[in-house]
Design goal:
- The protein has 116 residues and is α+β, with helices and mostly antiparallel strands.
- The protein has six helices and three strands, in the order H-H-E-H-H-E-E-H-H.
- Helix content is 52%, strand content 12%.
Length: 116
């Protein structure tokens, strides 16, 4: 993977990593605090944190003997811009579409020309 977006989307593909990002929205956290709510080893959490760090979604800093994790929200900017390009397509209003189809089927006279 050489495209930074590939790293971001690969990191976001895992539910545990998304939960970690949500936790870090509140404040910086020590690695041990990040690991606490999960039923997995500290080593497994460290692997998740490494993936998030390589994707640029978090940074890790050692303060004394404790390693802290910090959310890097700017890393999501390119992914957000890419996803927003799909926002140009509005959701289809199915009721309006159904009325349109009925009008097209019924024709301009308003009545059905079909033989039943």
């Amino acid at each position: 993977m050489t495209d930074p977006l590939d790293h971001v989307f690969a990191a976001l593909a895992d539910r545990t990593r998304r939960e970690i990002l949500t936790m870090l929205l509140e404040d910086d956290m020590a690695v041990t605090d990040v690991a606490e709510p999960f039923e997995m080893s500290l080593a497994a959490i460290s692997k998740h944190l490494g993936i998030l760090t390589r994707a640029g979604l978090i940074s890790q800093e050692k303060r004394g003997r404790v390693k802290w994790c910090k959310l890097e929200p700017d890393a999501l900017r390119d992914a957000s811009i890419w996803m927003q390009s799909f926002g140009q397509f509005e959701a289809v209003n199915l009721d309006a579409f159904e009325r349109f189809l009925e009008a097209e089927i019924d024709g301009p006279s308003g009545g059905s020309d079909r033989a039943d």
